[in-house]
Amino acid sequence: MKKHDCPRIMRVLKKIRAYLDGRTIRLPLDLVDWRRTGVFQKRVLLMEYRIPRGQVSTYGRLAKKLGNPGAARAVGNALARNPFPLLIPCHRAVRSDGSLGGYRGGVKLKRKLLEMERLRFDRKGRIVKVCFW
Fold this sequence. Notes:
mainly alpha; Arc Repressor Mutant, subunit A; two-stranded antiparallel sheet; globular
């Protein structure tokens, strides 16, 4: 690691701590190496990055916003391979029925992250009173 990288990493760590403390923050993307993604995945990740804390979108809605309305599964696959899960909050994408879908860290962690953002769930594990972005 280069000497000048440490302050940048420390800034990201402080923001991660703030997020875990419940504050609304946006993690910086200046440490992201986009060479690790393809063009489509980068577009998906940048769209996902824009979803505000406490809101979710569906894989289908993200596909539509990207101009590919039939690409919900491709969006899900791109998010499943998110190489920057701490910086790009891919837990904010869910299925169209409000159920969680998959998550690289496991569905329990996805639910916990969404609960930290004050989202609530019904008995079937679906998000209630959701504000879809």
